[in-house]
Design a protein that fits this description.
This protein has 94 residues and is mainly α. It has helices spanning 29-35, 58-70, 73-87.
């Protein structure tokens, strides 16, 4: 044991100790009806679109797209190429 413990999955509502239906859920069955269809952006109280975690606002759609882009290799490759460009500028000899 290295002293690191991972707790059991619990409801996203503070101090709610009700078990989840499955490990993929964020809310217990009691809170799913109230909070399960809300936009994932913290300050937003709009309902989320069907099969999405964010509402119709374009800013929230952009946050979702950026979140999904971070997980793709194209985004990581762009960061590596930018780092290489900073470390080895093409006109440093001139």
């Amino acid at each position: 044991m290295d002293g690191v413990t991972v707790g059991h999955p619990c409801c996203a509502i503070h101090n709610c100790h009700a078990p989840l239906n499955n490990n993929c859920d964020h809310f217990c069955p009691a809170h799913t009806a109230t909070y399960g269809c809300k936009c994932a952006i913290i300050a937003c109280s709009n309902d989320a679109l069907a099969k999405s975690k964010v509402c119709h606002l374009s800013e929230h759609q952009a946050v979702k797209c950026m979140y999904q882009l971070h997980g793709q290799s194209h985004f990581q490759l762009q960061q590596c190429l930018q780092y290489i460009q900073l470390a080895h500028p093409t006109d440093s000899i001139a």
